[in-house]
Structure formats: C-alpha cells, structure tokens
Amino acid sequence: MVTFINRFTVHASPEEFEKTSADTGRYVADRDGFPRYTLHQHAEDPTRWVNIAHWCDAHAFRAAAGAPSFPQHAAAARKPSTSEPGLYVPRQHVLGERAATEDR
Description:
Blueprint: E1 2-10, H1 14-29, E2 36-41, E3 48-55, H2 58-65, H3 70-78, E4 81-88, H4 97-102
Antiparallel strand pairs: 1-3, 1-4, 2-3
Helix pairs in contact: 1-3
C-alpha cells in the first residue's frame, strides 16, 4: 500500500474546488489498484486542503497518473489551487486503545 498525499492551497471557492476534486475522484475510482481517497479541509483555514489517496502499490498509482486521460484531471485540480503532491509509504500505524476494543 502507498499513499498519495496532495496538499492544496485553494484560491477559488470551496465549492469549485470540491467539484473538481469530485470529478477527479470519480476518474480514479475506476482505476486498477485504487481502493479509496478522502478530501480534507483545514478546520481553521478554509484555503488549506489535503487529498489522501490510497493505492495498492506505486505501480498502480503511476499507471493511473500516466494514463493519457489523466493530465486533464490534474490540470482541472490545479486551476483553482496550488499543490504539493507526494507519494508516501506507511511506516507506523497506531490504533487507540478505545478503538481497538470497539472493533471487537
């Protein structure tokens, strides 16, 4: 599993950014090796957002990002924002004690 994290500073309306993000989400949802993503807006600064996309492996991510139809989605996401993308590998996972007992 790898995680693609993209931090955005949004210069347009939140609604416009959410729409372009939803369009990209629908596009990647159909790609091999893509289980899920979440879009987060900063709790105190409405211009700061984070997209966290999980991929089965780096190959699946690169295949999706290298598809001929992907650049139009990337360009649409960059239009209302600036971003800092990166592909990350998980190193630690902590589950709270209460969460561990609630799962049983």
